[in-house]
Amino acid sequence: MATPAPPRWDRKMQQRLARGEEAALCELYDRFASLVHGLAYRVMGEEDAAGQITREVFGYIWENPDAYDPKEGNLRSWIATLTQRQAVHRLRRCEADRIRAGGERTSEQFERKVCEANTAARADFIKSSMPASIRDTLDQAYLHRRDYRQTAAELGLTEDEARRRLRLGLQMLSTAMQPGPSAGSGSASGSVSGQGSPR
Amino acid sequence: MTGSIGDGPLGGGPERNDGPPRPRVPWPRGAAEDGPPLPPPVRATAASLDHRTLKSLLGAWALSACSAEETAAVESHLTDCATCAEEAVRLRDAVGLLRSEDSLDLDPLLRARVLENCLGRRPARIPVPEWAGPYDAETARLDALLRDLGPGDWAAPVVLAWHRGTRRVSVADVIGHLTAVDGLICAALGEDSALGAEAPRDPTERTIEHWRRSGGRTGGEVREEWREQGHTLLRTVSFAGRSAGGLDVSYGDFKLPLRDAFVDRAFECWIHAGDIADAVAYPYGPPAPRHLKAMLNLTARLLPIALAGRRRAGLAASPARWVEAGTPGRSVHLELEGEGGGDWFIPLDSPAAVGSRDESVAQVALEATEFCQLAAGHREPEELAVGQAGDRQAIRDVLAATASLSRM
Fold this sequence. Notes:
The complex is a heterodimer.
Chain A lengths: L6 H13 L2 H23 L2 H17 L11 H26 L6 H23 L2 H11 L5 H8 L3 H16 L25
Helix pairs in contact in A: 2-3, 2-4, 2-5, 3-4, 4-5, 6-8, 7-8
Chain B lengths: L50 H6 L1 H5 L5 H11 L3 H16 L10 H14 L11 H15 L9 E6 L2 E6 H19 L13 H11 L5 H22 L7 E3 L4 E3 H22 L9 H24 L18 E7 L4 E6 L12 E8 H8 L11 E4 L1 H13 L4
Parallel strand pairs in B: 5-7
Antiparallel strand pairs in B: 1-2, 3-4, 5-6, 7-8
Helix pairs in contact in B: 6-9, 6-10, 7-8, 7-9, 7-10, 10-11, 11-12, 11-13
Keywords (chain A): Sigma factor, Transcription, Transcription regulation
InterPro entries (chain A): RNA_pol_sigma-70-like, RNA_pol_sigma70_r2, RNA_pol_sigma_r2
Pfam families (chain A): Sigma70_r2
């Protein structure tokens, strides 16, 4: 579910975290752990590293709830950005360690992973920012494996409209796959201390 | 506005040769116009579909969400139409991007590790009381299971079983049941529960009242209500602090202190999550060992009271002996195996007596999780694989009393 929380929820969550409410931390984890872990796993390709990144990202948020600026976007996309940065940071460190240990440079593969990390974070951002009507339609077809006719029936749409939304939703998502260096491999060198939303 | 993005310059799919494996889409062959009608189709299946319709199907096609005939028609069209072929590749790639978080089940142990790491870095100013920890963890685990359910799963039949009966309900009803009974804690804390203050306290009546009122709601709504109430409970009890643990929570004809009620509700949550998982064929493990231990401790403390009740009702097999309150009395040594297990000494003759290894008249050994299933009314005492030694009547009484703790 890439459903973003309402802005009020985001602000309230930030206040509760700042106040040091453990229950808020638990809720934050339950809402976003699969996002963080999923993005981290995509980049790292293994469970341990994804778990470690999940720990670091939530640790950072819990220690620095004020680093989130609601004016810059929703909490979800901020967390996705943190995760992507942290994953890329970790990836670079692993790569550096490997080369120092005499390993071969595999820059092509490495850059591809970085690029994928950026794409995945962007895709999540796009999905969480697209109109809910389109997101819901995609979820019916993708998550619940319904065909477009069942999707239309479930959501009370015409079949034309269901087809239109599925196509439009995928078109929106496909813009996350920007090829080329502008994908942000250069801007992702920091660890979880930066700010901003993925563009 | 359909197509305004797709027809734009960002395509480029076919030029890239890295990334995820390409779908088997025929390579574009020269340019094609949007306008003119297609030549008479070779396949009869595609006969009624024009370019416009085929194009509108591309999203559904990429998601494998059209009929077999439409799929064949689209794929045949892609060999003739470069514009559509290009878009098809791009949309197929986009489908891969939907998989941002649903591909993996999160390890429930990760949650504990992440939260522990956070609290080590910055201690909570308003902590969740320790005795509410099992409830927090078990509700989170069940919620993760519910998140994976499809709309059809919510109606899946579940058998609720307890020692005096069974009832066939739906997954949504089970969540309604948890919501209704969790609401008893809301009442004790002075919070509004989903059912309001006038609702019956008896868990069964309360559940039926909840089902009556919530007919026709979607699984998502039922889940949302349960989850929100659970969050409110944890939040409220955190602000109330440790000292609130002694408040009474009334269940109608009995009551439990708040700290025990939270463990009881965590236990019920796990048991019913197991019922749901069985119904939709999902694997579901036991609670974390320390949480399981808290549940076993509570059950062991409730057992002498249940034993006394059964004796008063003439249901006990072994005769009671007089024992002075606060002194060691005849006991059954309960040895529960597996993580979270341990040794418990259940006083037989009075809830006021102290369980004692020296005064043990019998020993019974079984898996801790099996013991929980017995306490939940999911097993009959006779069906359990138990190792036993000593007074068989005393053992039978303890196991029967354990089963009698279960309720709907």
